Amino acid sequence: MSAITRLRPLRALNIRQASPVLRFRRHYATDIEDLKKQSDSTETDNSVSATGVIDKKNNEVLLYYSFATSRNFIKSYLSRLTLFAPRYSDDEVKKKVDQLSSPLPQGSRLTEVVALARDSGAFVKYQFPQDETAREFIDQVRNNVTKNEKESENVVSRAIDYLTDRAPKVYSVKGVPWIEDLKRFPSPKLAIKFEGDPLTEEELYVLFRRYGLIDDIKADPSESIVLFHNIRSATCAKHCITGMSLNNGKTTIHIQFRSIKRKNYVVDFISNHTKIAIPIILALVAALAVIVFDPIREWFIEYKITHSKHSLDHFKQNKLFQLLYIPYKTLANLVSSSYDYIDTQIHEVVGSKDDDTSDSQSMDEIKRESNMFWKERYEKSKQLKLWILENLNSFIIVKGPQGSGKEEFVLEHTLASDDRLSDKVLVIECDKLSKARSENSLIGSTASQLGYFPVFTWTNSISQFVDLAVQGLTGQKSGLSESKETQIKNMFSLATQSIRHICETDYLRYVKSVERKNKKLKDEDKIELLRQEDFLSQHPESKPIIVVNKFARRADVHSNDFIYPLIAEWASGLIQNNIAHVIFLTADVGSVQHLNEALPNQVFKDVSLSDASMASSKQYVCDVLNVKDNTTLNDCLEPLGGRMLDLQAFIRRVKSGEDPEKAVTEMITQAAELITTFFLSSQKIDNGDNNWNSAQVWLIMKLLSKKESITFNDLIKSPLFKSSKETMDTLSTLEKFDLISLKRDKGVLNKITTGRPLFKAAFENIIGDLRIWKLYETDYLTNLVTLEVAKIQKLESELTGIYKISNKLDGRIDYLSKKIEASNKKIVDYEKEIADIATYQGDSKSGSFLGIF
User: In the chain, at which end, N or C, are there fewer CB atoms within 10 A of the end residue's CB?
Assistant: First the structure.
């Protein structure tokens, strides 16, 4: 079959621009014409913006100018705004059309321009001369556009226009364009509906190919599809062909844009293979988060450790920084001082005479307070520095009761006083971690202590829901939701990497320094380069110092008990890898157990801090308050002992204007109130760690109010402390809450003292209060009665069993009978004492009441 026979549209299509009469011959076109005539008869504005139709006479031709590739839908939306519309206004487009199309033939003129901002084009109507045909006029306009475009641009611009398809193009409008401003944005896909006989694929190709490259054609009687390679071609075809009448009016074409429904293979794979896709996606997301955020977090941890090197004060020495900072600071001071102008003037008039005096006093005061290093701790500070600089297994434990100034001793007087040791210090406050009530709070506190940033605590809640959803879809957990133990462990692992990087940075600096020196030396004089391990062993200042403050045996919240073993294991890893010095500050002797488990073969170096002597305490208070030692001050300091916490509280009270005697009295009263509320009341603590009863605490208070210390053997004589294990648990708990202090000799409990020297005076204050003494002494005796009653019941049960078996065990029966009689006698004595207490009204109590047995 020949090409002419095969392509029917070449004979039957008869593509031509139909006359107005032919175009509206069928009922559809006639209806539109009639509708337009009826609507125009009563309207004054019949322009294209009002009707969407361009009227054309016989000697007029309608062309479509395409200036560039049609923009996307976002720009199409913006084109409706006034801010973007002027670029495609009718006047602007008319000027551009004149420049491109001139010179027009004699007798022709441009009659109308309709700009299409959305499509980056315009309809232009010309009136051509009578002696020319429409085809000749259109060819001349196209030639003018091509010629003017080449002359107006250089070679580079023409090349860019060619590559980006931005060269102007002119097409003849063959149909009846519908100029609408609906929210239907350009698309390379055109939907063609036929009014009358449909067209075949070949006919559609011949009709549309002149406007651009076609990717696909689907012919269908109801709606055919033509897919262009680009949007500009589809836009030109739509505007030029829609409304075109073919086959002598038997077929009319109506064209609209259709959005392309692209198949997303990724989404399709995920929806069809959830068990495979979701774990892969979660793994990729987790890996991406690690790759992106872990280096940032590592840098922030390093910044927190090396704070002195990267602080603002360090950068202030930079000349460029000073050049920018000084004008800013001057302007800020000027603005801030302007707000306080009146106060400043008053201060200058009233207080100018006292400024120098007050400033000198404040400086002296600061100097005295900074020199609060007690003489007896000076040698211990030297020893601590020596251990760090020796760099041999620098795993150090600083022990001492609460308020003894351990943190101040280590951070201010040992590390801060030495420039070699103060550059790289990380302080971890364990109590802030152990008191966290929720998982997010714990993660946030840990991040704050380590400098771990950014941290996204909200992802924990989301990950739980995602884990639940994945489990519902796939039948197994995704593993995205991690336990808080794992998350905290990962944070400390990243801190280890940061610490190692700090050591490596110092080592690389050393390597570069040695290499520079070796370049200037002869071969026999060159310095041998040390390995990193040897370098760190010889330069202890290159390793960061990790200070773990308030390390304890158990956490305040039971769910956080894993914190202390985790920190101990983390610190042991730092020591074993020789990348840090670790100092533990603890008031809980039992916490050493975690360290023994983490480093079982390590001999720890420990420093024990006790309360200062009375002479040092008096000297310290006198120096800070700038007063002379006197009898009144000595009497006031006697109850406080040498506990730094209480001495500082006393100083603050006196500085505020309170009388020293009154200040001490108030401190004793407050301590007494704390003891009665916390230790003698029956309410439970949140973590359930109060395994004592008020009778036990009352007995310890009575004993310690009369003696400086008591022995363990003295304590277990009381029926309240019979079981050694339970007694040790109770005493350890009371020591944890600082009521008492346990002194050990070779690891064995030897003496029991008050947790704070102030508590001895508080004990005396409580016992000296008749009302409180009656209440808790009665409770103490009642507990003894209860124990004796329980003992008698147990003995009676044994006697009853013996009588049921045999009456021949006279020795055992006599023994049990004497025990019952002794317990009964004790009960009688206790009840007599309870009765006497109820009626007692004296100012001082008899020795029998203060007695124990």
Answer: N
Q: How far apart, in whole angstroms, are the C-alpha atoms of residue 667 and residue 650?
A: 8
Q: Residue 679's closest CA among 639, 737, 764?
A: 737
Which contacts qualify for 635-640: CB closer than 8 Å, 24 or more apart? 635/661, 636/660, 636/661, 636/663, 636/664, 638/614, 639/664, 639/667, 639/668, 639/757, 639/758, 639/760, 639/761, 640/664, 640/667, 640/757, 640/758
* CA proximity to 237, closest of 294, 198, 186: 186
Contact assessment for residue 112 and residue 125, using Cβ atoms and an 8 Å cutoff? yes
Coil, strand or helix: which one is 395?
strand
CA torsion through residues 804, 807, 809, 811, sign: positive
* Separation CA 808–CA 802 (nearest Å): 9
Any residues with CB less than 8 A from the CB of 640 and at least 6 apart, and which?
617, 646, 647, 650, 664, 667, 757, 758
Q: List all residues 6 or more positions away from 119 whose beta carbon is below 8 Å from its beta carbon.
A: 66, 70, 186, 235, 239
Token pair in block for residue 375: 């003489």
Of 51, 62, 39, 47, residue with least CA distance to 178: 51
Distances from the Cα of 17 to the Cαs of 13, 26, 61, 169, 473, in angstroms?
A: 12, 16, 10, 20, 61
As to burial, measured by CB atoms within 10 angstroms (0-12 exposed, 13-18 middle, 19+ buried), residue 651 is: middle
Total-model pTM = 0.63
How open is the CA angle 614-617-618, to the nearest 5 degrees?
Answer: 85
How many of the other CB atoms lie within 10 Å of CB of 788? 21
Q: State which H helix or E strand residue 399 sits in.
A: strand 395-399
Pairwise pLDDT comparison (660 vs 46), residue with the higher score: 660
Distance CA 579, CA 536 (A): 7
Closest CA to 434 of 565, 599, 608: 565
Question: Do 32 and 91 contact (CB within 8 A), yes or no?
Answer: no
Is residue 16 predicted with pLDDT exceeding 50?
Answer: no
**Helix (H) / strand (E) containing 691:** none
Measured CA distances, 5 to 1, 246, 422 (Å):
6, 20, 97
Q: Which residue, chain included where needed, has tokens 């009388």?
A: 659
Portion of the chain with pLDDT greater than 70, in percent: 78
Contact 544, 450 (CB under 8 A): no
pLDDT per residue over 831-845, tens digit each?
A: 999 999 999 886 544
Adjacency order of strands within the sheet including 169-172: 109-116, 121-127, 60-66, 169-172
What is the band of 447 on the pLDDT scale with cuts at 50, 70, 90? Answer: very high
Mutual orientation of helices 563-576 and 484-520 as an angle, nearest 10°?
20
Q: What is the DSSP letter of 209?
A: G
Q: How many residues are recorded in the chain? A: 853
Round to whole Å and give the CA distance between 773 and 125.
112
pLDDT value of position 180: 81
- CB-based contact 166:197 (threshold 8 Å): no
What is the residue-averaged pLDDT of the chain? Answer: 80
CA dihedral over 340, 343, 348, 353, signed as positive or negative: negative
Strands 395-399 and 425-429: unpaired
The string of pLDDT tens digits covering residues 579-633 is 999 999 998 877 888 999 998 888 889 898 888 888 888 888 888 888 887 788 8
**Would you call 714 exposed, middle or buried from its count of C-beta atoms within 10 A (0-12, 13-18, 19+)?**
middle
The DSSP bridge partners found for residue 607 are 398
Place of tokens 């551009």: 96
DSSP character at residue 411: I
For residues 399 and 605, the answer to whether their CB atoms sit within 8 Å is no
